[in-house]
Each structure stands twice: as C-alpha cells, then as structure tokens.
Design a protein that fits this description.
alpha/beta; Rossmann fold; 2 domains; 7-stranded parallel beta sheet; 6-stranded parallel beta sheet; 17 helices; 13 strands; 47% helix
Length: 402
C-alpha cells in the first residue's frame, strides 16, 4: 500500500507514535512517504534518520514566527489556535500526485487542516489520527493545572476546540485515538450520531528493542523516578503533586528515599525542587533507560491527562515496577496489583509506594509482570498490523463506492 503520512512535527524517538507507526508500516511492506515540518536543526537531523525507514520524506521550513502569526490569525476565527499553529500550505507544493496514494494518514489536531485540505481537493481516503481528545485534556487542565501558561491557553481555546473536534469526527473516513476514554470524549462532542466503528482505538506501543529490562544493572535502593517532558503543563502538575503532597508522607517512613525527575526543559517550579537534596532534577538526558533500570519504582501520579501515558508504558517495558493513578491506568488494560500498582490520593499513593520500596520480591514480581504485559499488548509491530487492517477496510470501502 502507498501511504502518505502527514505529521505536523518531525517523528523521532521522542515523538514515539508517528515514528514507530511509520517504521513498522514500512517493515510490513508498505511504501510510506512522510510529509512534515522542520523547525530547527534537531528536526533536520531527525529527518535524515527518518529517511532510512521511508520511501521519501518531504519537508518545509516552519519557523516559530510563522506559527505565532498563524495563532494570532486564529484569534479572529472560531477555530482553535492549535488547528492553525502548524499550517503551511507550501507543504502541498512539494507533494506530487496525492491521488496516486492509496491512503493519506494525518496526525493530531495540529494536522487537521491538512487532512481537511486533502479531503476537499483530492479523491484519496483520509484517516485522521486525533491521538487524544484535546478538549477533554483542556477541561481537566482548566480545573487542575498548576501551570499559568497551561491554564491560560485552555481558557482561551477550550470552547473553540470542543466545537471543532465535535465537527471533525464526521469529516474523515476513519478517526483514530489512543484510548477508550478519548473515544468516548470525542463521540460525546459530535452534534450528530456517529457509528461506533467510525472512531477506532489504536493504543500507543513501546519499542521493545529499545525499552527492555537490563538484568546486568542492580536497582538502587529506595529510589523513585518520574519521567516526561518537564515543561508540559500536565507533567508539571504531576511532579509538583508528587513532590509536595506524596513525598513528605514517604519521607516520614523512610527519609533516605531519593526522587529523580528526568526529562527535558524542566519548568521553573520544578527546578526549584532541587533545593531539597533528596530531589534530583536531571533536565535533558541522552538516554532515559539507565534511570528506569536503576530506579526501585517508577512513579506517575498523574492528576490529569489524555490518551495513554508513554512514561508508564516505557517504565513497564524496562521491567521497572510502576505506580500510577486511575487517571492514567484507565487507558491501559493491565491489571492493578498484578502488572502495576494504582493509587489515588496522596496517602494511598505513599502507602503503596512504600510497599514496593520495602518488598523487593514483590516489586520484582510487579516489574516482570509489567514487562510481559508490554510484550503481549503494546508491541509496535502488532499495533501497526491492526492499523494496516484499518487502512484496508477504508481503502476497500472507498473502492466499493467508486
């Protein structure tokens, strides 16, 4: 199958969903052409790496000033800022014969205008990967975010995003999301009834060749790790919740417990936590895996969010015992108490974390079971095979209509 994959940011090992879907679809024998936007030199490097897996990679420069101008322009419309942020019509000038593709796959709300452009001007079927229900995320952020910028943006864009997402679910041949929660949220936004099969749940996976246990490494005693992009408002809220509400309860029982906060671009609020000698803020690291391999427990006390938490999947794939909240766990079909721990509220979270810290055998059992679950349910090749089935259904349906 010839697939045009439009994504408004360069896929790489950090933007795991498009990167691994593209790689796995190619491994399954498809001809994948990627069209994407380049913002900086790091993106250019990622493009060169991506070319090893793709039939072709088409790019246009997308300087920050253009995204900001796009966003200002969106203020004078009824559409959300995110839908304008990554729009660059020059991308279509670089793509030859769009109708020559069997299918066009477009990712994220930031890519929705590209998907609409294809649908309005060409005869090729379009699959839009919403990934998450962004308005569902915004509703939670408005109520619970500790980030001023995150709260401001959600207040500005929530209403626009709800209306736009509700309209979008009726515009394409198939919609993808990462969880049943997001499917339900999008379905409820639609002003018109939609078929249950219109929105398909395609969860995130894990690169199990990259994220895997390292049995040569001994885990540090009494060490927690929390990972993620530390400028993202939901992660800022999560880390502050962990540091201010949960860790003091843990330290009452074991004052030697260390917390490693691992991830790029930590906010000023997170950086301030390093005044506590038991909290280590790493900032950007070249490789997340050594921190996951050494930690006793991976903590993810998610307060709000959307879709599947990659931080949870990656830790489980490394055989690290994970404790998270119901907010995060409801998107993963693992069994609480078997493959990971689930706790809500600071006291419950602290008690269950201490249980893992104080019982190495139990922690090891949870970590091993989590890894086995990742192999069974979240391998990218398996997930991409399911995506190929979705593609086949869309393309065959289009052929029957023509």
């Amino acid at each position: 199958m010839r697939i045009l994959f439009i994504v408004p940011y360069v896929p790489n090992l950090i933007r795991v969903r498009p990167y691994n879907l593209i790689k796995s679809l190619t491994d399954l024998g498809n001809e994948v052409t990627v069209a994407t936007l380049v913002v900086n030199d790091a993106d250019k490097k990622s493009v060169e790496e991506l070319k090893a897996y793709c039939h072709d990679v088409i790019t246009v420069e997308m300087p920050l000033w253009k995204s900001l101008v796009n966003s200002i322009g969106a203020l004078f419309t009824k559409l959300p800022l995110q839908s304008f942020y990554s729009w660059n019509s020059k991308l279509f000038e670089q793509i030859e014969d769009i109708n020559g593709f069997d299918l066009v796959h477009v990712e994220h709300l930031r890519g929705a205008k590209y998907a609409l452009h294809v649908k309005e001007n060409y005869s090729v079927p379009v699959v839009w990967d919403s990934v998450d229900c962004i308005s569902h995320l915004f509703e939670q952020a408005q109520a619970q975010s500790k980030s001023f910028f995150g709260t401001l943006i959600t207040k500005l864009d929530l209403g626009r995003t709800k209306r736009f997402e509700g309209w979008l679910v009726n515009q394409f041949d198939r919609i993808l999301v990462t969880s049943e929660v997001d499917k339900s949220a999008l379905t409820n936004l639609s002003p018109n009834p939609i078929q249950d099969t219109q929105i398909y749940v395609l969860p995130n996976g894990v690169n199990l060749e990259y994220f895997k246990p390292d049995f040569s490494v001994n885990r540090d005693p009494a060490t927690l790790v929390v990972t993620g992009k530390m400028s993202y408002h939901a992660n800022v809220t999560m880390v502050l919740n962990l540091a201010h509400n949960i860790m003091p309860l843990i330290w009452e029982s074991n004052p030697d417990v260390k917390l490693y906060v691992v991830g790029k671009d930590p906010s000023s609020e997170i950086q301030e936590l390093s005044s506590n000698p038991n909290i280590i803020i790493t900032g950007t690291v070249d490789d997340m895996r050594p921190y996951l391999h050494r930690a006793t427990v991976a903590a993810a006390p998610v307060v709000y969010g959307a879709g599947i938490q990659n931080k949870v999947l990656e830790a489980m794939a490394c055989g690290t015992p994970v404790i998270t909240t119901t907010q995060s766990a409801q998107a993963i079909m693992a069994k609480p108490g078997n493959e990971f721990y689930v706790a809500d509220g600071a006291e419950d979270f602290a008690i269950k974390t201490l249980d893992l810290l104080n019982n190495p055998d139990r922690a090891n059992q949870i970590g091993n079971a989590g890894y086995e679950f990742m192999k069974e349910k979240h391998d990218w090749m398996m997930i991409s095979s399911r995506l190929k089935e979705v593609y086949n259904g869309v393309v065959n349906g289009q052929r029957q209509l023509s």
